[in-house]
């Protein structure tokens, strides 16, 4: 035992007291003695570091490949987090008519942005009756990338009470048999194809956008070739830009734009087939271009709207059994603005143009493309500019030789005194005063020796109407004298016999 112990102590001493080599080769690659300064492979520490680096590289490659595989799998099958009823922001309640799902931001902790993101498509129960997003600062409808064999369409889809932005990402689709968007501060964009689920008949019953403070832009083909079974409504909403061919709908019952404000309509903005089309209490700030409203309906009504700027030629391309333009304000009606308003082929139609306020009416800007009849009503319209440039064409339209008989009949009817179409002005006490437009039109008869075409080139309505009043007053004494002479003659003749 002592000999073995002595040998072990000798070996330990030789190792402890060994003199470091200058290089590993001198130590015969015995790295217990090699300082590792000349050859990294001779250091155990460096050997371990290299092994660890290789292991790390293998792990990184493994996780990268796994992530790619998982991402592909997630696109193919829904994840648990794609199930809306497992989202903590959503409450799912099963009712007699089906599942009611309400997603809101009221559960969010303080400091967390109150933005709800609705993926499209999304996993919801098969019998989903309603899906509502509400009470958030912002809401986003974003494409999820899921590939689903069957997309569940709720009976009702709604977005309500969004105090910030409602954002629809490109390529998303609004899904719902009845769709209502209301009480939203701003929608930056309605992108192309957002309602393409309504491209086949009767897929959507109701579509409503109500009380939206601002929609920046409705893109071309946003709502295109859409079939709405019952009603399409834009109410109490401001839209800055509506692109060409933005809204193209076939509505089973009523199309309504009400209490809204529209930016420039440069042409071909609305194509509407419906039983009833109504545009009421709305403001069109920057003009209405050619074919802006392409309408086919039983009844079409433009009531109590303000058309600022120009209403261009053929702006209203309307085919209807009854077309009504009432209580509107027109800043400028350009030539033939209403000439494409007509009835259905072979069916007698009714045209109403009454109680409107017109600043400037250019040549033949009021008449529709139909024969005037006693059923039509063109009465009690007020004109603010009755001077020569604005109104002298009326006489020629009613009596001239260079217009069609259809046009002459219409304006002859329009100028009847009993229709009470007048030139309007305010007197010095700001009391509204009028004079009959038929009397004014007679002043512009180019064949009359006393026509006032040059005199009233820049005249105000007050000057024109006062001229007519004074002329009438000047005639009255002469008439009285003539009547008195005639009566005196008759009396003398009777007394003679």
Give a structural overview.
The chain is α/β, with parallel strands linked by helices and 497 residues long. It is elongated. 22% of the residues lie in helices and 36% in strands. Helix 4 (393-399) packs across helix 5. The model is unreliable at 13-38, 69-80 and 475-481 (pLDDT under 50). It has a domain at 76-252. The protein has a 24-stranded mixed beta sheet that branches.
Short description, anyone?
This protein is α/β, with parallel strands linked by helices.
Question: Which range best describes the helical content: under 10%, 10-25%, 25-40%, 40-55%, 55-70% or over 70%?
Answer: 10-25%
Number of strands: 24
Radius of gyration: 42 Å
The backbone outline, from C-alpha atoms, is elongated
The N- to C-terminal Cα distance equals 187 Å
Mean pLDDT: 85
Largest sheet: 24 strands, mixed
Oligomer kind = single chain
Tally of individual helices: 7
Query: Which stretches of 5+ consecutive residues score pLDDT under 50?
Result: 13-38, 69-80, 475-481
Helix and strand layout, with pairings?
Elements: H1 2-16, H2 44-76, E1 90-95, E2 98-104, E3 115-120, E4 128-136, E5 138-143, E6 156-168, E7 178-190, E8 204-218, E9 223-242, E10 247-251, E11 254-258, E12 261-262, E13 270-280, E14 283-284, E15 293-303, E16 306-311, E17 316-326, E18 329-333, E19 341-342, E20 350-354, E21 357-361, E22 382-383, H3 388-391, H4 393-399, H5 405-414, E23 422-426, E24 432-436, H6 437-442, H7 461-496
Parallel strand pairs: 2-4, 3-5, 4-6, 5-6, 6-7, 7-8, 8-9, 9-10, 9-11, 9-12, 10-13, 11-13, 12-14, 13-15, 14-16, 15-17, 16-18, 17-19, 17-20, 18-21, 21-22, 22-23
Antiparallel strand pairs: 1-2, 23-24
Helix pairs in contact: 4-5
């Amino acid at each position: 035992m002592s000999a073995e112990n002595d040998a072990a102590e000798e070996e330990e001493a030789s190792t402890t007291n060994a003199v470091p080599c200058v290089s590993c080769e001198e130590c015969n690659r015995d790295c217990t003695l090699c300082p590792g300064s000349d050859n990294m492979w001779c250091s155990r520490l460096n050997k371990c570091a290299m092994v660890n680096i290789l292991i790390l590289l293998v792990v990184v490659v493994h996780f990268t490949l796994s992530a790619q595989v998982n991402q592909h799998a997630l696109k193919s099958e829904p994840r648990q987090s794609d199930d809306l009823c497992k989202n903590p922001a959503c409450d799912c309640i099963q009712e007699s008519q089906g599942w009611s799902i309400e997603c809101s931001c009221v559960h969010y902790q303080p400091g967390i942005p109150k933005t709800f993101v609705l993926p499209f498509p999304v996993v919801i129960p098969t019998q989903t009756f309603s899906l509502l997003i509400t009470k958030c600062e912002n809401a986003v409808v974003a494409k999820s990338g899921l590939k689903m064999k069957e997309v569940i369409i709720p009976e009702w889809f709604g977005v309500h009470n969004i105090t910030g932005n409602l954002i629809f990402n490109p390529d998303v689709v609004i899904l719902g048999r009845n769709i209502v968007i209301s009480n939203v501060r701003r929608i930056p964009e309605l992108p192309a194809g957002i309602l393409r689920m309504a491209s086949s008949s009767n897929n959507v019953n109701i579509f409503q956008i109500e009380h939206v403070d601002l929609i920046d832009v409705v893109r071309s083909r946003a709502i295109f070739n859409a079939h709405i079974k019952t009603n399409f409504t834009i109410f109490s909403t401001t839209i800055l830009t509506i692109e060409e061919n933005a809204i193209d709908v076939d509505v089973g019952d009523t199309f309504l734009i009400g209490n809204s404000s529209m930016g420039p309509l440069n042409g071909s903005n609305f194509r509407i087939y419906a039983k009833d089309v109504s545009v009421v209490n709305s403001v069109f700030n920057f003009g209405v271009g050619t074919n802006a409203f392409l309408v086919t309906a039983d009844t079409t009504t433009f009531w109590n709207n303000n058309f600022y700027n120009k209403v261009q030629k053929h702006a209203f391309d309307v085919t209807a059994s009854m077309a009504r333009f009432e209580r509107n304000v027109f800043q400028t009606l350009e030539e033939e603005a209403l000439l494409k308003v007509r009835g259905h082929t072979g069916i007698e139609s009714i045209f109403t143009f009454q109680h409107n306020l017109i600043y400037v009416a250019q040549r033949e800007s009021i008449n529709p493309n139909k024969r005037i009849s006693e059923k039509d009503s063109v009465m009690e319209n007020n004109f603010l500019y009755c001077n020569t440039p604005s109104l002298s064409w009326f006489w020629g339209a009613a009596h001239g030789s260079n217009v069609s008989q259809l046009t002459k009949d219409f304006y002859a009817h329009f100028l009847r005194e009993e229709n009470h179409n007048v030139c309007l002005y305010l007197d010095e006490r700001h009391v509204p005063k009028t004079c009959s437009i038929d009397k004014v039109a007679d002043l512009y008869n180019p064949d009359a020796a006393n026509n006032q075409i040059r005199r009233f080139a820049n005249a105000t309505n007050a000057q024109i109407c006062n001229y007519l009043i004074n002329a009438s007053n000047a005639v009255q004494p002469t008439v009285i004298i003539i009547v008195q002479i005639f009566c005196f003659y008759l009396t003398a003749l009777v007394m003679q016999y």
